[in-house]
Fold each of these.
Amino acid sequence: MKTLVIGHEDVKRLLPMADCIDVMNDLFRALARGDVVLPLRQIVPQPDRRGVFGAMPAYLGNPRTIGGKFITVFNGNRDTPYESHQGAVLLFECDNGRLLAVVDATTVTNIRTAAASGAATRALARKDAHVLGILGSGTQASMHLAAMRAVCGITRVRVWSRNAEHARRFVESEGNGGQQVEVSSSAEEAVSGADIICTTTAATSPILKGEWISAGAHINAIGASVPGYRELDSRAMVMSKLYTDRRESLFSEADDFLIPLKEGAIKEDHLKGEVGEVIAGKVAGRSSNAEITLFKSLGLAVEDLAAAHHVYTKALENRVGNWVEFSGGRETRSE
């Protein structure tokens, strides 16, 4: 039995941001229909807390596929040759259980995480949003800039990082998209007056305060996707009209939400709905230009499956990737 292995360069070529945003939009609709089976991810930390291993299984009804992402997360890799997220997405078909493809999870994760925010921004942000504030300067900062450029008429970008040199490098590498891209000296300066705010850090305590957020802003909070990490203070959560990718994940893994909930600053009904329900017309989204909307992203295995299936389909069409012989077929034995 042969399995297609699809590496980093092929994934980048076959999964452009605009296409992936459309894939995530369709995936969120599938979530709203209940057309998925999605257990919570399993996280195995190393005893020294240097890194974790994550197993994220899922079933997706359309396109019909089953599998999962298996990945390590080492947030200390910033100044090494390695990405923080490394692993593989395993894609199986649902009739006989054949392993169809092994897809580079680093690239899938990088693109689909920002693409999910792109789909949420298209559903929730003001139509005239054009000033973007980014907190963080790593891979997801770059990916989110690409996603916001794909869905909004961005004219100005302000970037803040806890490491000023990293922010400077970000501006040098990303300041060629026709917009004004500049370094901010503080997180407050980066988000002040911003129409869209993306938090893309590995912060364990809040870096975005509610008092800095302007009326009408839309926030994509994506860095704190597991317990122990937090990017927003309680006031920011209280001020915002909250949407997420999946309720169960929010109530199990999101300290941005769970801490103000425990404090009594918000109640469970502070969550207005899943972004897929907004896209499907089941839940109301933004109702005025003054509202602050918040997409709290946790990252879902079905997002990886949907993106990997798109890559696999395009790889077959373009005849790219490498075929590897795996066991799985019955061996014929002579008597």
Amino acid sequence: MSTRLSDRRWPRIRLKYAFREIDQRVGSDAAHLPLLSVSIHRGVIPRAEMTDRESRADDFAGYKRVARGDIVINRMRAFEGGAGISPRAGMVSSDYAVLRASERLSPEFFHYLIRSRWFVGEMTARLRGIGSADLGNVRTPRINVDDLGDIEVALPSVADQCSIADYLEHRLAEVAQVVDRTRRLDALIDERVRAAITASIVEGPLSAGAPSRRIRRVAQVNPESKVFARLEADDLVTFLPLEAVWPGDRLDISRVRRWQEVASGFTRFVEGDVLVPKITPTFEAGRAVVARGLVGGMGVGSTELNVLRPGREIDADFLASVANSTPFLEGGRASMYGVAGQQRVADGFVRDFKFALPGLDVQKRLVTELRRRLLEASEMQDLHRRRTALLLERRDGLVACAVTGQIEIPPVAA
């Protein structure tokens, strides 16, 4: 028999009466406790699972102690879901909030409550910082524990809270499985895309005996490293900021800004240039694009782009396809330098990459055939992404309805 929680009138209380803040410093125990962090998607995990980079803290003695079952909140990311229950003892940065639930609050229920759309809205309204969270321009946004405790919530009994948490755990696991399968299908499509590009653009011309060329012989590499154009402050310009290069899915070159809003030192590109990201993790198949539809025929972008300007011997779309081929990607990764997570492709690799170059008419025919195949793959991926987005939207709606008592909670199978 299902429990109709929504038929009950849940008592309303301020959260400060359901938890207490824990502010214990680890002191000399720091050497024996793992450093924890909060992932928006995975909850509380060891920091080593999020990054290969060593922490720069010289002394962890001032870090906060976390016990198993404590609720850890990244106060700067809480409004994005940066909260979770710690599955182990450890320590976190002093800028995190560590909360311990009272006997009136199930930590598992609170985990879902704090990540629900309704609660995120309540936290967003209480952010401390400069700017607007809605516009994404808040600098150092934080939710204070006192403000968090001031939020009024309706709490069912602890038994009902546990039922809700168990129900959501099972349902969200089902959603996660479907999302994971869809993403694996997308990865398989990506593999097929790389195989199709390589077969059409690299292996085909090579087997046909087309002469070999290095990129620097048929295109200029990074011909203009700085912006030298003289524009009026109110003139519009196509702008490609760093966030469009890393970690976006594709290069979005449709953004337009006023010249006065663009800082100096950006890479300049023109209509018909081929843009190739040179920083991980976006050095992937399908990321190189031809710049088209630029305002005034010119654009400016992040210095994390390689700009290839095709000469007369090579078609821009063919060159972009070469930059999306498996040999180019594998060679580029092998040439990377820099610290983990911020590695860059060596410019020398791009200039000296060798490939088979057929005549222009053959290049255009190969590109036309390849474009048809890639369009089919893109349509399938778009369908998968729409389904995934719908699933995630329904998941968020389910959490919000469950923690606010708007739906029946059926019994959870053992």
Amino acid sequence: MKYLGFVVVAGLAAVAVLLPAPAALSPEPSVPEEVASVAVCAIEEGSGRTTAISVLSTVDGPVSLTLFAGGETTGSIGHETGSSGSITIPVVDVSAVGTVGGLVEMPVASSAAGALVSGAESMSSESCSSVAHPLTFLTGATTASGDTFQLHLMNPYAGEAVVELTVNSEAGNESNARFEAVIVPPRSSHIVDFTELVPGRETLSIVIETSRGRVISVGRQAAAGEIAIWQAVPPAQDWFIPIPGGQGRREVVVATPINADVEYQVDFYGPEGLEEGLLSGVMPARGRATIDVTELSDKPVALRIISTAPIVPTLWIESEEGLSVTTASPRSANRWLLPGAGVPAGGRATVVILNISIDDSTVTIRPLRRGTTVRTLTVGSDSLLELALEAADGYLIESVGETVVLWSGHRSQASVAAIGVPVSDE
């Protein structure tokens, strides 16, 4: 396939651009401005669910979590990652706040934070975002069959943000005045309830374009008591998604915000190795395609999806254990942090490691907690492994070759899947 070039709207790439945070959010920053890294997390506390924030770092250093809502700080707490390079902060220790945003300050750029939301019969996890991009895209949501979907817009900054939403479904473009000029006040969150605005839609795709200020957006899907959260991300043309093995429905929903036909190709990493060009097709303008992974294999597999214009692929896993959703990764790396990764109480967890290198890769798997055992193993070229995890605040995965990493967790009637956070070697 001949691939066409396309320039995506650029994000605000530097963490230094994101913060320092407004004084009202963090009157006494816990780390020096020149080395601090920050992330914004979607918080849900109450109504039978509680959130814990996992913070991982390659160094021992100070961490702070500040909650913001209604234009002000609603609580703040400071910690140290300690010698393990990790800390988990229950939000209930800060404040009982409902659905809000959380600002995490971390020691260095090679750090990551993630939110793990737990209920009696639900569990979800997503990494916290360190960059507020001016244009992001979210796909695969649904308001059909009694399911509910909300878009959580978070603005931790001192200035007001204005957001334009472009919404498409199987019915075409969805027109609603409440999608236009959505205002997110400073240091506040705004919830857009699509269940109320566009009920009965099988599949929703949403472009979030910030015309003034900056926001970070997270989708929140509820189905049969289970909750899944995932980030809206900038579209790109090259994506990787490792997929754990198992029964139930495993699908990758691919959609494009582009108002033109988009060609795509799917390379398949399976039990027999890499099969390039296993699938291909054409998505219509602002359309979508679904890849049924269950039909390909019930073993752990991975996909690489390449396209002629920007797209976003999202993995959906639905089984008796629950619902989990995560977005693919637009990059590979030699070092990954998995905030929140570990065995849920009474459950199990695994990590899927995809080696995209042409050579075998030595991989080190390091649980971030005291007294843990570091494992070193080899992942063959253009292949993947799924391994069991142990209890930890999260994991550091390092490799000689380029890899892509995803973790999943399961307990009774609840499951979670989350792509890792690539970090630099600095």
